[in-house]
Amino acid sequence: MPDGGQAALASRRQALGHFLRQARERTSPESVGLPAGVRRRTPGLRREELALLCGISTTWYTWIEQGREVTVSAQVCASLAEVLGLGRAERQYLFELADLADPYHGMANTQALPPGLSACVDSIQGPAYILDRSWHVLARNDALLRLFDGWPDRSERANLLRYIFLDPLARELVVDWEQRASRVVAEFRADVGAHADEPEIQALLQELLQDSSVFAYWWGRQLVVEREGGRREFRDSLGHISAYQQFTFRLAIRPDCKLVMLLADTTGSPQ
């Protein structure tokens, strides 16, 4: 029976293989200079095609996709990322799953926020909040409470994913909820990366997979994107819509956390 560390490594290898398979099947032959062909049983590149383009054997690549106990070098990861056309967040996710994680992530930090940081959030005029890597809300200001009609204070240890997928009020508040929901799942996957096997994140994932079919669907798609800013619209109980520009900042003193700010947007047309 494998110990906890071996089980975590095995889980990571399986996640790496599944991610590569999904990325391979999304990559068209034409995008890498190959003919589309007429007798492809599955969409995207074949395993042998990807292996050839990356300069590795088909057998070895197949073992990687199958989650077998093989070592993947940084050079191979770079080749896979290039051929598959991975974006920056996807590339970082690939390296983390291959145990070549960015040192920026480090281990999860469960300590309280440094003194004064909550007061900084309070001083921000527009809605603002701080999320940890599991997307728990560590701090928020009164403007956010007003915009979100009392959330996150009405939830014990509030979590943004639980709110979006398990709180019916989120569907009423967030304009274009379906589009935003699919996006945040891909953003969360990029955030947790190789740390998805941590007990707290696993517990959150299992809860969401069980209780939200929408989350389960998008989590299974293996999409990875960066958390980007842009226009966000919210509808209050009277039907009035307010618009904001969202900005997200990683905290240098707590790199596992990020500050999210919503600044009033009066430009009129969505991005």
From TrEMBL:
SMART domains: HTH_XRE (SM00530)
Pfam families referenced in this protein's UniProt entry, alphabetically: HTH_31 (PF13560), MLTR_LBD (PF17765)
Cross-referenced InterPro entries: Cro/C1-type_HTH, Lambda_DNA-bd_dom_sf, MLTR_LBD
Top-level taxonomic group: Bacteria
Domain HTH cro/C1-type: 19-91
UniProt-recorded name of the protein: Helix-turn-helix transcriptional regulator
Gene source species: Alcaligenes endophyticus
